[in-house]
Amino acid sequence: MAQPASGITVAALYKFTAIEDCSALRDQLFALCEREAIRGTLLLASEGLNGTVAGTRQAIDRLFAAIRAVPGCDDVEWKESPAATQPFKRMKVRLKREIVTMGVEGIDPRTTVGTYVDPADWNELISDPETILIDTRNDYEVAIGTFTRAINPMTQSFREFPEWVRENLDAGKKPRVAMFCTGGIRCEKATALLKQQGFEEVYHLKGGILKYLEDVPADESLWKGECFVFDERVSLRHELKVGSYQLCSVCREPISSPTGQGGGYATKECEKCATEADPERLNRAADRQRQIDLAEARGQNHFQPAPSNARRR
Fold first, then answer.
1. 33, 73, 181, 187: which is the annotated catalytic residue?
2. pLDDT digits (tens, 9 = 90+) for 201-236
3. What pTM did the predictor assign?
4. What are the Basic and acidic residues biased-composition ranges (predicted)?
5. Among 3.40.50.920, 3.50.30.80, 3.30.70.100, 3.20.20.80, what is the CATH number of 8-95?
6. Which residues contact 158 (CB under 8 A, 6 or more apart)?
């Protein structure tokens, strides 16, 4: 398979739509991605598709054309950002029960969803003290960046979000609720959940944090920190520039880079792992890092498993 050239387009996409033959679509998209040297992950379910992939400009355009040709996907949500090198190691197209796992039956963003708010109008909405602002991402993501005044539900999985809503929000009080996530997909289901439960005034950031960081100038921004992403860039800042975080070589949680240059795996473990991880796990991480260093010295791209956090997306 041909290797993608330097100068990579990373595309995050999703669409809630009925897909009748997921297996056939999986085979079609996987073959196209293999042929075009596209890497990343696509998830397919009867409710739609979701994923993040990376490849050359021409390759991504061909994939985009193929997805738009799928019935119901002509207006697929599609956000792009640049990468100097390929941030994924392989291509995966997987069949799932849900394209973003909440685990609540009867939630269908195709029929009921909150009100979209463009990035240009987001600051006004969330600056109103009457607005309850909720970060629907997981705790490890919130830890490195979020919006001013945002509530962190402290979830470790999106499956925990419905329980948090039951315990912390009351539709009877008629609150105004605004929610956000990385690219918008989690908020589709989160707002659908609240609407189903009787909440009337529910909003979500169109295009997610990534679109906000792309469109809103830093000097006008209410975003604090960086945005975790599920690839080897690890985090992004305003203008979608690579941030200053790496992944711990042991637990693979984001940690600050000692040099300020983010992306990839840190050469050492985080403080928690250094004090709490068992010696065998530390030795495995150290051996993996030696293999990475050797591969880089040879000009090769050493394969590493996806971050363990990725399964919680």
1. 181
2. 999 999 999 999 999 999 999 999 999 999 989 999
3. 0.87
4. 281-296
5. 3.30.70.100
6. 100, 101, 102, 136, 138, 186, 189, 312, 313
